[in-house]
Amino acid sequence: MKFPYEQFDRQGNPKSLSTRKGELTEEGLFLKKLEIPPESFIYASHHAKRVVLVYSEDHDPEKEPEFLILAIHKADPVEFTNLYNRMASTGKAKRERAKLSKEGRLDEYRDHTCPYCDATILLTGYAESPEIHCEYCDGVISPRVAAEDAKAVKVCQNCHLYDQPRKFQTFFFYFFVVFYSFGWQTKFVCNSCAKREARIMLLKNLIFVLGVPYALWQMMRVRRARVVPIESYAGLEEANAAAHRRQIDAAARLYDTVAARNGGSAIASYNKGIALLSAERFEEASSAFEEAILDCSNFSHAATMLVACMLRLERDPKDNPILAEFLRKNESKDQLTQMQ
Predict the structure, then answer these.
(1) Please, which residues have CB within 8 angstroms of residue 168's CB and are 6 or more apart in sequence?
(2) Which of 50, 214, 215, 256 could join 201 in a cystine, given CB atoms 3.0 to 4.6 angstroms apart?
(3) Per-residue confidence (pLDDT) for residue 337, from 0 to 100
């Protein structure tokens, strides 16, 4: 895959004034003055046209990984990210197999190929569960849910609830006599968050007028938008809307209905936990996150939130048997320890 690109630093400032040419192949990533072999790939994520690439030369856990922020052109960022992650996950799986083979535990190796992004999901050390979480595309794979329905449900960048996020652009214009400024931002947010973003954008632009037409157009677009309901997750958007209105008990009941209809749902239980957590109902939120992990044993989002709840309840996360699958794994243990 060949592509023109611009490189940015961690503050979002461009590192050069012109675009350069790069290429991503099975042999690695080739940029100007930088070549990264696929064995060094760790993870990639994308936001609009920008991609964030994480890599490490020797995968030493004691060293901080390297980061690259690129804006790629004339190439699909989703396809780029999936290709990078597919190679990263393949390399990780090979290292895991080699490690287990050396320890004489190769029979414990388990993995699953994500049907949405083709990444290899490592399941070694996790209990078998009905659903599987892909750490690369953030999808939840479930035999209870139609593949197209599961693929459509993602995390909203604002409220962090699973929903059907869509692209939303904000625009602001400011001027003070001889000084003026403008800015825009692209987000992928749920319908409830899009409505709130549109209201905020209109209010901020009212002061200087020039940004008002765009803000009004976005508000009309959001209000007229009709989200196509997902059959397998019917009621999820309604539950999320109730959570946004702070009607926590109503939202919890709706989430339970979604989960019961599917014979269990990590996504519905996770959203329920987030709603309860926002109301500081930590005990109930803990139970919801535990349900999510029981339905999806490698669901790292739920595990992280469960740790947060237990810390707020002044309990040791290591005493929770449901978190044992994560605490037994060095990588996950490091992540959970950092939260503490």
Answers:
(1) 186, 187, 188, 189, 193, 194, 197, 198, 218, 222
(2) 215
(3) 38
Q: Which residue bears the tokens 């044993």? A: 297
* C-alpha 19 chain-centroid distance: 28
Specify the pLDDT at position 106: 93
Q: Which residues pair with 67 in a beta bridge?
A: 54
Sign of the CA dihedral running 336, 43, 49, 14: positive
Contact 204, 172 (CB under 8 A): yes
3-state DSSP assignment of residue 42 = strand
Domains and CATH numbers, the chain: 2-89 (2.30.29.30), 147-163+229-339 (1.25.40.10), 166-224 (no CATH)
- Cβ-Cβ contacts under 8 Å for 297 (sequence gap 6 or more): 123, 126, 127, 128, 129, 325
Q: How far is CA 311 from CA 169, 314, 316, in A?
A: 36, 5, 7
pLDDT averages per 10-residue partition of the chain, 340 residues:
88 82 93 90 88 85 83 90 95 93 93 94 91 93 82 87 80 55 70 79 66 64 62 88 95 95 93 96 96 93 93 89 71 41
Q: Under 8 Å CB-to-CB from 340, ≥6 apart: which residues?
A: 307, 311, 317
Q: Is the dihedral of CA 91, 93, 96, 102 positive or negative?
A: negative
Contact criterion met (CB below 8 Å) for 151 and 142: no
> What does the alpha-carbon distance between residue 56 and residue 269 come to, in Å, rounded to a whole number?
35
Distance between first and last Cα of the chain: 41
User: In whole angstroms, what is the distance from residue 245 CA to residue 188 CA?
Assistant: 20
pTM confidence score: 0.82
Residue 23 structure tokens: 């290429």
User: Is the distance from CB of 186 to CB of 169 less than 8 angstroms?
Assistant: yes
CA–CA dist 125, 123 (Å, integer): 6
What pairs with residue 46 in β-bridges? 51
